[in-house]
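hiii, so i know i said id send this last week but things got crazy w the move. better late than never?? heres the sequnce for the chain we talked about at the cafe, plus the structure i predicted for it. fair warning i was half asleep when i ran it
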Amino acid sequence: MNMSTSAVTPERILLRLDWNVIRRLDGLLQGDYRTLFYGFGVDFADLREYQPEDDIRYIDWNVTARMDSPYVRQYHEDREITAWFLLDMSPSVDFGTVGREKRAMLVDTVTVLARLLTRHGNRVGAMMFGNGIQRIVPARGGRIQVLRLVNDMLNQPRLQKAPFTNLKSFFDGALFSIKRRSLVFVLSDFISEPGWERALNLLNRRHEVIAVRLFDPREMELPDVGMVTLEDAETGGQLFVDTHDRRFRKRFADAALKRERELGDSFRRAGVDVLSLSTEADLVHAIVKFAKQRQQVRKK
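okay and structure toks below
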């Protein structure tokens, strides 16, 4: 799928997602998006005794055990969130085999999250990365800002094949550039030179970071379709293979599983929550599942 400004416009994309995604999310999450964005812009204020109408998720169990009666935490919430989208626009994000590229999923996800944030008075900005940081969209609020983000993503040029992406330099640049504590979404397939975990961890210490990992199912398992040419999405290197060969498909799947485990370990070392999105995923179901997972963590 080749997204071009002649085929789609920011207004059409936003209208489609308002109707097909955000409207459904409003129904499923009942307008409560704190499960998605909790932890940001909230400062501990005080403790007081539990009252029947209080949310049990705010009970401080350590204090409750000492006082022999339930106590809840009270918070001061910032009225405004500043959110940044760190967007990996490297060549591997242009991959897609089932009618939808990872880049298209990236655009949809950013549009939905930006729309949810800005309609509640928050500001959003973006940093786009390919061979270095290529574009910075200053954080602003409103529907016009969402349309600007979409337009800039659609017009971000596709890069020629190059050496592997260096996400470490991207995260280092974001740590230097984003001054105020912010909610940071990193959207990438995390196909990169190794060694980015510490930089992401440092970013997460200063901000609240959510990693949105993009992938295509064919990156996990090859179908039996005969002789095909596999191309490295980053470097352009090619390999002619026979997918009829069951042993080759098994080696490919084993290598993909190993990469998955290593990536999971990297996210754990970085200390960030991860929303994994397949190019075949239903964005609504994926976001609702992620919100429920964060809610469960919150209750522990």
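btw The two ends are 42 Å apart (CA to CA). thought thatd interest u
miss u guys!!
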